[in-house]
Amino acid sequence: MMEYLKFDFIQNAILATILVSIACGIIGSLVFTNRLVAMVGGISHAAYGGLGISLYFGINTMLSSLGFVVFCAILIAYLSKNYQNQDAVIGVVWAFGMSVGILLSDLSPNSNTIIFSYLFGAIVAVENIDLITMFIANIVFILMTIIFYKQLVGVSVDKEFCQVCGVNANFIYYMLIVASAVCIVISLRVVGMVLILALLCIPSYISSMFCSSLASMMISSSILSLIFCLGGLILSVAYALSSGACIIMLACFGFAIAYLIKILKNKA
To answer: Which helix (H) or strand (E) holds 192?
Structure first.
């Protein structure tokens, strides 16, 4: 395996796993503690619309997906907050994004290979512009967490009480939704839009079994994500398999082991 390290695409893939692991560790923990998994699932599938726009108009996939997904995320967040039936809102925006993507990709020639790589991940296809975008997003996520840590913890525990205490819970809510949308887009190359929700949730859920604070949960989730992503990358290169599926399969095994340990610990 060591001989592969001299190739640029492998070096880019390793850098991408590190950056995406940090992002998913931070944002995944916030999504999990704020019970936003269903909403983020809808946003991740709406990303297909951004891919269709990129294929049809010939613009950068990362930028088009970023614009479209952030738009869908804010739309879901606003409608969910102002109308009671959140599930219906998520379902409609999810279907809208998928429909836009399917129609525009149908009208775009030779799009099947590109679509497959974004649906199921193609970590070895990460480009320099992707790495730069991931790096900038990580800096923003870390600064956001440091500056608003107390507010993020407070809103995840009791949003109404925080509002009474003067915390702008609406701002924190929209900031978290937009950050989740950005995290989804920068992770598409690594695991794909079908499996990104698993990378956001599984490491966070495992960490929640053993961590007592949000900060420790974020650090633990980032480390677990890195282990799963690097392990999946090695398997995908060694056996010519889909990188996204390898990463999530390892994460599922990790979840099963952690769940078993938790059960045994409770019985002891």
So the answer is: none
- For residues 68 and 211, give the distance between their C-alpha atoms in angstroms, rounded to a whole number: 35
Query: What pLDDT, on a 0 to 100 scale, did the predictor assign at position 225?
Result: 93
CA–chain centroid gap for 223, Å, is: 15
Mean per-residue pLDDT, 83-94: 82
Query: How do residues 137-160 score in pLDDT, each as one tens digit?
Result: 999 999 999 999 999 988 888 777
Between CA 202 and CA 225 the distance in angstroms is: 9
**Length of the chain counted residue by residue:** 268
pLDDT in tens, 183-225: 998 888 777 777 788 888 999 999 999 888 999 999 999 999 9
Tokens 């996939």 found at: 61
Q: DSSP string covering 52-76, please?
A: HHHHHHT--HHHHHHHHHHHHHHHH
- Residue 2 burial (CB < 10 Å; 0-12/13-18/19+)? exposed
Q: How many CB atoms lie within 10 A of CB 129?
A: 12
Count the alpha carbons within 13 Å of 125 in the hemisphere toward its beta carbon: 20
Helices 112-120 and 37-57 meet at what angle, rounded to 10? Answer: 160
The span from the CA of 202 to the CA of 25, in Å, is: 10
Distance CA 17, CA 86 (A): 33
* pTM for the predicted model, two decimal places: 0.88
- Asked if residue 243 lies in contact with residue 124, where contact means CB atoms within 8 angstroms, the answer is yes
Tell the residue number behind the tokens 């809103």, with chain if given: 155
Give me the amino acid identity at 220. Answer: S
CA separation for the pair 198, 205 (Å, rounded): 10
